[in-house]
Amino acid sequence: MTDARQLQRECLLGSLSPLEAVSQIDASIGGITRVDFKDGVKFKLTNHDQIFALAHTGYPKRAMDRMYGMAVLSYFKAKQNGSMMPGEVHISDQASTKHHMQGIIEYYDRYCRN
User: Fold this and answer.
1) Residue 89: which region, alpha, beta or left (left: phi > 0; alpha: psi -120 to 50)?
2) Which of 40, 54, 63, 73 could, after both became Cys, cross-link 12 (CB 3.0–4.6 A)?
3) Would you say 4 and 11 are in contact if contact means Cβ atoms under 8 Å apart?
4) pTM of the predicted model, to two decimals?
5) Which DSSP letter does residue 57 get?
């Protein structure tokens, strides 16, 4: 099994796209069922019985943008995997799964094709 943190690190360094990283993490943990992301506070992925805490601070702006892409793609992957409660992603006042879905859709559109 591949380490989710290592895949995240490769994505943030640019070796993997956010889409590739989320796809590989999903396969390696047996399916993402929930994501909890709040900028500067937390980034956690959950499968059916484990929580995987990922890095969430201390990276340059370009890497943080890739991290936001990973969070958004993880949210949609959890929904695709059939999760009834896929979690929440709060990037900013303009991008949140709770109140500002348009910003979330913009991240999805930017990274779902890369």
Assistant:
1) beta
2) 63
3) no
4) 0.93
5) S
Domain boundaries, the chain: 4-111
Cβ burial of 45 (10 Å; 0-12, 13-18, 19+) is buried
Buried b (16+ CB within 10 A) or exposed e, 7-41: bbbebbeeebbbbebbbbbbebbebbbbbbbebee
First vs last C-alpha separation in the chain? 24
Separation between Cα atoms, residue 106 and residue 10, nearest integer Å: 23
Q: Tell me the per-residue pLDDT of 15-43, one tens digit each, with 9 for 90 and over.
A: 999 999 999 999 999 999 999 999 999 99
Rg (CA), the chain: 12
Cβ-based neighbours of 1, under 8 Å, separated by 6 or more: 28, 29
